[in-house]
Write a structure and sequence with these properties.
By secondary structure, this protein is low in regular secondary structure. The chain has helices at about 5-20, 25-30, 310-320, and strands at about 305, 325. A two-stranded parallel ribbon has the order 1-2. It is rod-shaped, with a radius of gyration of 25 Å. It starts with a helix and ends with a strand.
């Protein structure tokens, strides 16, 4: 499309927008425009498209920076590499849409429908996703640093190698989500529902997971250095070889969890429930074990030493069970 023709198309599109029609596709058709072809790369920055029906539209590469798309229907729309920085997409329907490599930095997506949406390598830094439904979406390699996902539904979401540093996921549903090798440094997942989520190889240094439900979660090889897991529920979690140096696990439940080979040096397990927990080959030197329940825990070659809260009687029992004091 040449430059003059492109400008004519954009002028027609703006006329349709200004008409405030409830049947955007029909009026576009009457104007001789194709939603599948004529909207590619169009400049609609700052335009009011709120409530419009743009389902199946091809907006690949379009400039929609600061546009108002609140309540719009973008079901199955193509928005790959589109510019949507500071755009208002609150309550919009983006289910099954394709937004791979799009720029949604600082965009408002609160309570938006993003079920099954493709957002691979998309920039969502500091975006507002409060209460959004991203169930089954693909956000692999996406940038969600500083994003607000509190109360959002991320069940079954793919977040492989995604950047969630400093993100807010308070009370979010992340059950079954795939966070393998993702970065969540300083992220807040307190109160989140994370049953069977996979954080293997993820970087959760200094993350907040207070009162999070982490039962059956995978933390194999994850880095939780100085993470706060106070009162977290880690029943039957798989934390083999995880780094939990200096982590706070006070009052947490680790019943039946597997922490074999994990590094818990200097961690706080005050009042933690480690009943039937596998701690074999783990490092608990310098850990706070006051009021820690270790009944039936597997402690073969568990490294201990300089621990607060261990009685002489408990030390003898642990040594007899295979623990090593250094």
């Amino acid at each position: 499309m040449n430059k003059q023709l492109s400008l004519n198309v954009q002028d027609l599109i703006r006329q349709i927008i200004n008409s405030k029609t409830e049947n955007f596709p029909k009026l576009a058709h009457l104007a001789g425009l194709s939603l599948a072809e004529d909207f590619v790369g169009v400049d609609l920055s700052g335009e009011d498209l709120s409530g419009n029906n743009l389902s199946d539209a091809n907006l690949n590469g379009a400039n929609l920076n600061e546009a108002d798309l609140s309540g719009a229907n973008l079901n199955s729309a193509k928005l790959n590499s589109a510019l949507l920085s500071l755009a208002d997409l609150s309550d919009a329907n983006l289910s099954l849409a394709k937004l791979n490599k799009a720029d949604l930095s600082l965009a408002n997506l609160s309570h938006a429908n993003l079920i099954g949406t493709q957002l691979r390598k998309t920039n969502l830094s500091r975006a507002d996703l409060i209460g959004a439904n991203l169930s089954g979406a693909n956000l692999s390699g996406a940038n969600l640093s500083g994003a607000n996902l509190s109360g959002a539904n991320l069940s079954g979401v793919y977040l492989l190698r995604a950047n969630l540093n400093g993100a807010d996921l308070i009370n979010a549903d992340i059950s079954g989500a795939d966070f393998r090798n993702a970065r969540l440094i300083g992220a807040n997942l307190s109160g989140s529902y994370a049953i069977a989520a996979n954080f293997s190889g993820a970087d959760l240094r200094s993350a907040h997971l207070i009162s999070a439900n982490l039962s059956h979660v995978y933390l194999i090889g994850a880095n939780l250095n100085r993470a706060n897991l106070k009162n977290a529920y880690l029943k039957q979690a798989y934390s083999i070889g995880a780094n939990l140096i200096g982590a706070n696990l006070s009052s947490s439940s680790l019943k039946g969890a597997d922490f074999s080979g994990a590094n818990l040096k200097g961690a706080c397990l005050d009042a933690a429930d480690c009943h039937s927990t596998n701690l074999s080959h783990a490092n608990l030197r310098g850990a706070d074990l006051r009021c820690t329940e270790l009944k039936d825990a597997k402690v073969e070659k568990l490294l201990l030493g300089s621990n607060t809260g261990l009685s002489e009687k408990m030390k003898v029992q642990l040594i007899r069970s295979g623990a090593i004091f250094e």
